[in-house]
Amino acid sequence: MNSPVLFQELDTANGMKAGVATLNSPQTLNGLSLEMCALLARQLRLWADDPGIAVVILNGAGEKAFCAGGDLHSMHKAMRENTGGDAWNNRYAREFFAAEYSLDYQIHTYPKPMLCWGSGIVMGGGVGLMMGASHRVVSETTRFAMPEISIGLFPDVGGTWMLSRLAGGIGLFLALTGAQLGASDCQLLGLADYTLDSSQWEALVARIKGSSWSDDRRDNDSALRRLLLDLQTTEPASPGPLQKHHALIRRACDGNDFDAICANVLALADHEDPWLKRAAATFRAGSPGSARLGFTLLRRVRLLALADVFRIEYIVSLQCGVQGDLQEGIRALLIDKDRQPKWNPATLRQADDAWVQRFFQPPWPDTVPHPLADLGQA
Q1: Rounded to whole angstroms, what are the CA distances from 373 to 1, 147, 285, 311, 368?
Q2: Is the peptide bond before 147 cis (omega within 30 degrees of 0)?
Q3: What are the structural domain ranges in the chain?
Q4: By three-state DSSP, how is residue 349 classified?
Q5: pLDDT at residue 260 in the model
Q6: Cα–Cα distances in Å, from 160 out to 92, 123, 365?
Q7: Mean pLDDT (the chain, rounded)
Q8: Burial 26-63 (b: 16+ CB within 10 A, else e)
Q9: DSSP E strand boundaries for 271-314
Q10: What's the pLDDT tens digit per position in 229-271?
Q11: Cβ(300)–Cβ(315) below 8 Å
Q12: pLDDT, tens digit (0-9, with 9 covering 90-100), for 83-127
């Protein structure tokens, strides 16, 4: 049986090595499982401590996706079996979210250059992996999104931290609509650093192997940047739909009036641009509770340190498994595939500010420390 993550060490021109970690589940679009998180975290620690490793590369097997998200089938099974309604009793959710968020933070704080090849689908958990890499590459096939509103979750994996730091209204629009971004919009927003053609993967690996590397982090960062800029296309990218409608989206989604913002997004259903129409349709069909959660979280975490954001997201994610729409959302989209979720609450009006506060209560006993208490303390 093939490992769900493959690891290689490539020799370079001067004897240093490049570590390559490949998500190896193309049949699930490289959906991130608990086992994959554990394997990645362990190997990244080993490479961080290995003076012979100069750079690390993270990519996904197959041509369709880097990583399309988390292992939702296992999450649904665990929620269905947790019949008592106690979030802390869902052992799988406890372990998965702790492992995933710790891995994401490990990447954000990694001591060596890390190149993420974000070609194809990059969504949900894939965004969490890519976001913290020091050199983030997208291609003409990239489809980048945080579509959690369609499954009753929220933009987790540090997504609330990422989206809250975009220009006013832009992050909230992406959270509410799950709108997909291409390469040019990713670079516009600072969600990616370089755009290469997807056919250049082999050339990129060859250039990394053919280069001489240092034991100095800054030198290697600079060398990898020069290499990527040299491979990057010189033709100006066509403006993406978000760039075209940047001012409109900011007017529609900036501010603190949740009801007005929701009305503005719904009004986009009449826009002539199919991308905006699809955004409005996704929002209309999505979980009202997720919309309120996204709105509340983006305001709450904007000025917090990343480790603190992961700690808040962990609490909310566990609560989503018992009193939110996550189980129902996964059922409708992936299990029964009827695409007819019965959201609770059913309307945006019912998902008010008082309703959402329950998601911020830690579900574990007072004697138990936060499972991510040590994040950022080393």
Answers
A1: 36, 28, 36, 8, 10
A2: no
A3: 5-360
A4: coil
A5: 98
A6: 23, 14, 26
A7: 96
A8: eebbbbbbbebbebbbeebeebeeeeebbbbbbbbbee
A9: none
A10: 999 977 777 899 999 999 999 999 999 999 999 999 999 999 9
A11: no
A12: 888 999 999 999 999 999 999 999 999 999 999 999 999 999 999
Task: Work out whether strand 5-11 and strand 17-23 pair parallel, antiparallel, or are unpaired.
Answer: antiparallel
Q: Whose CA is closest to 155, among 260, 290, 263?
A: 290
CATH class in words for 5-360:
alpha beta
What is the 3-class SS of 88-125, one letter each residue? HHCHHHHHHHHHHHHHHHHHHCCCCCEEEEECCEEECH
Blockwise average pLDDT, block size 10, the chain, 378 residues: 92 97 97 97 98 98 96 95 93 97 98 98 98 97 98 97 97 98 97 96 98 97 97 85 98 97 98 98 98 98 97 98 93 96 97 96 95 90
pLDDT of 104 reads 98
pTM of the entire predicted model: 0.97
Dihedral sign for Cα atoms in the order 123, 125, 286, 164:
negative
In this predicted structure, what is the pLDDT of residue 378? Answer: 65
C-alpha dihedral (360, 365, 369, 373), degrees to nearest 10: -20
- Report d(CA 289, CA 277) in Å as an integer: 21
d(CA 85, CA 323): 8
Tokens of 353: 């500010």
**DSSP letter string, 191-229:** S-SEE--GGGHHHHHHHHHHS---S-HHHHHHHHHHHHH
Is residue 320 within 8 A of residue 359, CB to CB? The reply is yes
- The amino acid occupying position 304 is L
Within 232-285, residue ranges assigned H as helices are 241-244, 246-253, 258-267, 274-285
Rounded Cα distance between 208 and 231, Å, is 12
Tokens of 333: 């989209």
Name the one residue in this structure whose structure tokens are 């959402």: 356
232: helix, coil or strand?
coil
